[in-house]
Amino acid sequence: xxxxxxxxxxxxxxxxxxxxxxxxxxxxxxxxxxxxxxxxxxxxxx
Length: 46
Hints:
Layout: H1 12-35, H2 37-45
C-alpha cells in the first residue's frame, strides 16, 4: 500500500483523481459561498 507521498506523480489515475479533487473543492466552496452569502457580504463591508 502506498501513501500519497509514495505514489508516482503523473500517472493517469493520479491526474484524474487530482482533477476530481479540484472540482469537488470548487463545488463545495461555491456552495458554501452561496449558503453563507450574507456573512461574506458583511465581512466585505467591514
